[in-house]
Design a protein that fits this description.
Low-confidence stretches: 32-36, 215-231, 296-315, 317-322
Family: Belongs to the repulsive guidance molecule (RGM) family.
Structural class: alpha+beta
Membrane topology: Lipid-anchor; GPI-anchor
Radius of gyration: 24 Å
Shape: globular
Subcellular location: Cell membrane
Pfam family, one: RGM_C
CATH architecture: 3-Layer(aba) Sandwich
Strand order of the largest sheet: 3-2-1-12-11-10-9-8
Main location: membrane
CATH superfamily: Mog1/PsbP, alpha/beta/alpha sandwich
Oligomer: single chain
Mean pLDDT: 81
Number of helices: 7
Strand content: 15-25%
Distance between the termini: 85 Å
Helix content: 10-25%
Length: about 325
């Protein structure tokens, strides 16, 4: 200052400038808390997804295959409610798939009025039920819908709660993927405990092996049943081949694809599993958890993995049709 002959009087720049606080931007006020020392850790985000027959990935990264016929709540907290309706896929089977999704963005102070979105098979709108495509005032909306593919794929971005929702239609059925901050996702009353994304499916509604494995109930004795044709149009070998084209990594999404093809015969379930994995890669905050592999609770002899997959899938298909 002396070299430049600057006066020591008058305004100077602060070394601790005020952080602009936007009440309708979750990332903004989460950052304010961090900078002020109220919270030294950045917000943690959770992911939940539902697709196929249906397969559920919970906020805790538990993977389950469920029946859940009828209307069921995925999320029901103080900020967001999501309900899905599932219908039988094949006559005489307990396998179901989603044909209706209702999402309620609850009113939030000055950020947005309550907005309701509803999608059903062959009607995936790019607007809320009131005809609007956004919520909030100003040029930068706190809630908006973006149509990525007409009638097939929409995204909802809720800035004020840091939440993103993907809804797709593949074939005759719908899929859903959600990313939400943990502190908001876990903000609910005791009476709101029935949330599939939080606590998973009730045990009575599960059709997997209790560990999320749709292809592994290993070591169990099975009826002497032919594996040649699980459903018209697909054998285990052809289902494996078709799913492997889209998903080279043989994780739980690959297994779900095979399971769905064998139980329904509907090739669109291959696209559903592949899109579900793409949504994980787009929304799940932790890359090391994108792929879920079946836990090896039972040792499988070398060269026996294909046989184990065959036995496991046969057992699951029998469970579905019982």
């Amino acid at each position: 200052m002396s070299q430049r002959n600057c006066s020591k009087d008058g305004p100077t720049s602060s070394t601790n400038p005020e952080v602009t606080h936007d009440p309708c931007n979750y990332h903004s006020h989460a950052g304010v808390r961090e900078l002020r020392g109220g919270d030294q850790n950045p917000p943690n985000y959770l992911f939940c997804g539902l697709f196929g027959d249906p397969h559920l990935r919970t906020f805790k990264d538990h993977f389950q295959t469920c029946k859940v016929e009828g209307a069921w709540p995925l999320i029901d907290n103080n900020y967001l409610s999501v309900q899905v309706t599932n219908v039988p896929v094949v006559l005489g089977s307990s396998a179901t798939a989603t044909n209706k999704i209702t999402i309620i963005f609850k009113a939030h102070r000055e950020c947005t009025d309550q907005k309701v979105y509803q999608a059903v098979t062959d009607d995936l709108p790019a607007a809320f039920v009131d005809g609007s495509t956004s919520g909030g005032d100003g040029d930068v909306k706190s809630l908006r819908i973006v149509e990525r593919e007409s009638g097939r794929y929409v995204e909802m971005h809720a800035r004020y709660i840091g939440t993103t929702v993907f809804v797709r239609q593949l074939g005759r059925y719908l899929t859903l993927a959600i990313r939400m901050p943990e502190d908001l996702a876990m903000s609910y009353e005791e009476s709101q405990d029935l949330q599939l994304c939080v606590n998973g499916c009730p045990l009575s509604e599960r059709i997997d092996d209790g560990q999320g494995q749709v292809s592994a109930i290993l070591g169990h004795t099975l009826p002497h049943t032919s594996l040649a044709q699980a459903w018209p149009g697909y054998t285990l070998e052809t289902a494996n081949a078709q799913c492997h084209e889209k998903m080279p990594v043989k994780d739980i999404y690959f297994q779900s694809c095979v399971f769905d093809l064998l139980t329904t015969g509907d090739a669109n379930f291959t696209a559903a599993a592949h899109s579900a994995l793409e949504d994980v890669e787009a929304l799940h905050p932790r890359k090391e958890r994108w792929h879920i592999f079946p836990s090896s609770g039972h040792e499988t002899p070398q060269g026996g993995s294909h046989r184990s997959l065959s036995l496991g899938l046969t057992c699951l298909i029998l469970v579905v049709f019982l």
